[in-house]
Each structure stands twice: as C-alpha cells, then as structure tokens.
C-alpha cells in the first residue's frame, strides 16, 4: 500500500505519536507545570452548545489578514484511492495493555487486523467504511476515504437531504479501542461547545453497524475545501506557485497564516483548553482564511490523566520529555510551523547593518523581525516564549505591517498596545527657527571684506540624555497592584511626579509598596528631573565634576538606577527565581528597556544598545525598540545600521516624526539633500510635529551641508573658494543649487510662523538664514562663470525672498542689500540684547553693498 495523499482533514505524519508518560518529577498534585503560560481557566466538560461566534473577519483589518483566495477543489479529487493505516501502528485497545499493534515487528510486515500478541484483544486499523455505504438511514452516502489522523479515519460523504452537500465523517481507527472512542466523544463535545468559524464545525453524530464487527460512532463535520498548509509547503518545495502563476508564497502570507492560526488557538485558550498538535497538516487554507481541523488532541492544560497527542518535530521540548501540553507548548508548535513555512519562502535577512540603506523597499528589517518572532516562540525555556496566543498574534501582526510598508512604501499604521505614544520630538534644533544668538559669533569686518561664509547646517542630533526622556513609555502592566493609582492624573513638573509616586510607596497607599510599575515610573521621573537640570560647563551628560548642578544631576541618575534595582528585586521574588538581564522573562523586557534608558542618560550608548536589542528580541513587532536602536547606531557612527531601522519605523507610521528626523540626519551626513527633505515632507499634517518638519525641510533645501571631503550635497562641482572664510565646509562645497533654493523660498512663504501672521520675528530670522546661504550660492556663481551661465537652466528663482521684487533674479548685490535689511530687523527684535543689537547693526552696515557718491563740479566765480 502507498501512503495517503495530503488531505484537508487531519493527515498524520510518520512522527505523530502519543507523548510518553508524565515525568515522575512533575507536580502531580497541583496539575501545574512551569511551562503552563500562567493560570488558565478550567472549563467543565460536556457544555451545552453556545451560539456560533464568527471568526475574526480578515476584512475587519482593512484586508490586512486576508489571504489570496483559493478556489475550492472538487471534493472527490481529494479521495485516497489506496488508504493505508498508520505505519507506526496504534496502542492496543485494552487499557491494561496499551502495547503497539499493527506495526512491523521482527522483520515481518505490519498486520492491520488481528489480535494483540500480548493480551489477545482484537483490533482493526483498516477503514470501516467503503464507497457506497450509507449511514443514518441512507442520509449520508460514503464516497471514499480522505485520510487518517492520530485517532481516526476521515471519510468523504454526501448529505442526500441537503442537495448532496459534501460532508466529512470521522471515526476511530480501531473500533476495539474504548479509549479512542471516549477521546472522539470528548472531541465531539468540545467542538459543539466552541462554535467558531476558525475551527471546523460539527453537524451531527451518527452510529453505523457494519455487516461484521462492532458498531462504530462517527462525527459528521463540515467539509473544508481547500489546501492544507502541508500541501502548500510541498508545492513550494517542488517550485510551484500554490496561489497561482503570478503569486508566490511570501513572508507576508506566512505572517497572515500565523495571525489567523493564533486567533483560532486563542479561542481554545480562553476556554481553558490547549490544541496540542498544531502543524501544517492540521490547517486548511479555505478561500481567504484558514480553518483549524483535527481537534482530537485538544485537552485541558497540565492534564496528566490522559496521553497527549503530539507530533514530536513540532512539540515543545518539555512536552517531548513527558510533561503535558500547555499554552507555551501551543506557542512552540506555531513557531515551528511558521519557521517551516518561512524556509519555503527562502527570504533570509543579512547580517545587521549590511542592508543597503539607499535601496527603496528593502525588507531586511522586516525579515529579521519575523525571524525574531519565530525564535522567541521556539525558545527552549517555556517562560521565555510569548505569554499567550494573543500576545504572539499582536507581535506577528506588527511584523506583517512592517513587511507590507517596506515592500510597498505605503503606511500600515496601528497604535501600539504595549507603548504609549510619545509627544517628544527627538531633534536638537533642525526643526526650529534659529535665534538671534545664531549670528553672535560673526565678525562684522569680515562681511565688509566678503570673507564670511554661512555655517553648515547643524543636523540636530539629540543628546543621549534627551533621547532617554523622549522615547515612548511602556503602558503599565494591567496586573500591577498599583494600576489604579498609576492611572491618576500626574503633575506636569517632573519633581511633582516624583513626589506623587513616592506617596504611592508609603504604607496604606493601596499596593504601591509592592508595585514594580511605580518603581519603574519613578526611574523615568528621576531621569526627567536630571534632564531639566543644567549641565556642567563641559556640556557632557553626566561627565562633569561633582560640584553644583553636575552633582545634582549625578544624584538623580543614581536614584533612577536605585529604583530600577528595586523593581528588579520585586519581579525576582514574584517569579521565584533570579532575573538576569541577558535572559528574558515575560516581564524582563520592561527591565531591559529601563536599563537602556539609564545607560543612555549616563552616556553609555553601546551598553544601552545591548539592552534595547533585548527588548527588540522580546517585542519584534513594536517600533520603539527599533527607534532606540536606530539612534544608538547613529550615535555610534554606524549609519548603515541606523538608516534601515529609521526607515522601517517611518514607512510603517509616518506620524513617527522622530524617525523622519533621524532618517533626514543620516541622509544629510551623506550629502543626500533631496532624500532628507523627502523624509521630512512625509510627516503628515495630522502629526503634532508637522510644522517642525516643514521648517526643517525648508532649511535642508536651502542650507550649506557639511559633507566630508567637500562633496556637494546636490552633486554640484566644487567652487574655487576664497580660502579664508571661517564657515564650515571647504570652499563652496555643500551649497544648494538654485532650484533647491527656489523651492525653499516658496515653502518659506507657506510656513505657519508667528502664530499665522504674514510677518514676524520667526519669519525674519529664518529669512535671514536662507538669504545668507543664497548669498554664498551667488558669490560662488560669480567665481564660476560656467555655473552662472547654467543657472537659468537649473531653475533660477525670481522674486522674494532672494530678490527685491517680483520677476527679478537673485544677484550677489541684491542679496547683500536684502541681508542687510534682515540684520537691521533682527536688531530690533524683542529678545535682542544691547550687545547683539550693536553687533547686528555693524553686520548690516558691513554686508550692505558699497555706495558711491558723486559731487558735481561747478564753475568757479572769477575774481
């Protein structure tokens, strides 16, 4: 006989078997196991049928989880013409024997019907129904055998009362096995009680008396027309396209499979059950969704009274060793299933930092995130896996959104359920209008001599201390004893927050003394207090002397670290073991996140990166760890690693303005002006940092860029330079072209500055900065006559703010006069000090074009 083909109903692989007896060291009295994934509500057996709850429609996610539609196959095409019993046999039906029957022994072929050699109990592993047999008084007509599962045969039949609708009949493999019959009845009761469209439904229950032998009971089930994931895998391995000629299997499809499978398992977990035997054979791709079949292995978690039905290649290590299946075991089986499907895709990530940052649509970050989901689900320690199906589905959906946004360039936004949105922009001045102090260091006499060049644009990379208090904050753990107090309105001042949180720790404050979340909040509050204190004269975070403000800043940092250590001790006692930063537990990622914040505040960015990477391993579908890792890589001088991370966050959610600014900084450092401005233009109007992004885009388009090696940010040739300027850069390197300046001038007029007024102090300062850069461009063109002649073809602007009137082209003389007027208006601004006023007036007089006065000669009167 040949092995039966893949079928949409419970085919079993050769390695499917019952788990060995429980480990004697297991806590039999408690029925619990360390890998149980937390307490699970137990349900009574034999419940009444509930109203059927439809599965979560993929369209509810805007089509996010919808799979390519597969047309249903002809049911008869799935029949096995030569059904073969399981090659490894089955346990004897005698509960006191349970030896294997129907398997090859002593070099002899298997006998699929006979009596047990040990207890003489009869058995039969052959199909009990044949084509043409009828059940329930002729209502169901058997068409043939589909496959066999771990507990029974599955047959195709037609329902003559409902227009010959195809249905599936499931019976026991060995009718002489009362334990198998009891398991099938238990499966029937559970299937009736579940009632979810993501799980195969049951229609009826009938009994059939063959001509010879014992009566056999059958479950009448829904026939699921489609392809099993095993069939999808096999077709991919043969180089076929399972969804059609133009649709290959991608990681996005695998992630959708995983999300739908996990939501089906979540239905079981909420009812206090575990599935036990998840594998590609037991999932059917039907239409645009999947359906989980074969509930023969469903049982209560930690149930040591029955033999678990598992497949060893998918089972968790602790279950293979004899422990009963748990929620953590189900998570492991899903991880192995997704890993096997991903191998068929063959899309592998390169080493971190090897992705080509300039390649649009690169999915390196998304592929690595998917691999991290699978890796965490398959961890050896059950405590390190996802806490449940819902948590894993949430992270996998985040990875799916990341892959889609990177592949298509379209946003795939969804608010995080783990991190609160941050209102802080991680920027140090790129998106702000410079103050009058920006011109404080210029020498007026240099304007007169034409030696001053405008300084290169500061990309505005924030300090580690600023990032430590500006990154998103994790939502409090809902099970924390002080969750009610933590939801109270907090004071605006950081010291007020510290005072409020310390009151929660006092006796009688409602559980605050044992709350790790209160201590973690105190850690962040101390970091904010430290950040608002002025730093020492050397300007370094936490590196100054121990006197004055530096000592106060160091004390706040020590308090933050002390609160973090206290939170770690509480979590260690709660979990009954010593927590290690290098070994994540279900709550460890919160500790690792705060360790990273403290290390950032200390200026130890390399160590902070290690902690944030641990958080990224625990939460692969979240964007805050990627944002933190991108900043660390940028600070440590690894733009090749920072750029893909910034882009992944920005592509997925353009409202993450900090990622757009980080992406712009990386592009500016490489002289890619247009890409930097494009990233800033991508910040949507709904973002609270939209105005800052528009200001930054205007400055980027008009600015001189500090490009290493004197490379021009727009690809212009290097000018001769005057050799004695005091600005950044080398000669005329990094200057914008006139097209970029013209775009900046047009965008400047549309900026919402000074509260919407057409003129004001902010607009005056920004206009002065742009005119300085434009003057440098004009002076460069005067030195390079060829560039000056090509300027009109390159998009020479006309009119304000670079010319005195509409239609007039910008010239060096005209820009000097305009810049002189800008300096005079700066001198009259309200925040200008007397020293700055005098300096700006001197600069205005110096930069103004030289004026020539002629005295008319008159005829002298003769004596």
Please render the helix and strand layout as text.
Elements: E1 16-18, E2 90-91, E3 100-101, E4 113-115, E5 122-124, E6 134-135, E7 140-148, E8 152-159, E9 165-172, H1 178-194, E10 202-208, E11 216-222, E12 227-228, H2 229-237, H3 251-270, E13 283-286, E14 289-292, E15 309-311, H4 317-320, H5 327-345, H6 364-377, H7 389-408, E16 419-420, H8 444-449, H9 464-470, E17 473-474, H10 483-486, H11 494-504, H12 516-532, H13 549-575, H14 588-602, H15 605-618, H16 624-635, H17 639-652, H18 657-669, H19 673-681, H20 690-702, H21 738-750, H22 761-783, H23 785-790, H24 812-827, H25 834-847
Antiparallel strand pairs: 1-15, 2-3, 4-5, 6-7, 7-8, 8-9, 9-11, 10-11, 12-13, 13-14, 16-17
Brief overview, please?
With 863 residues, the chain is of the alpha+beta class.
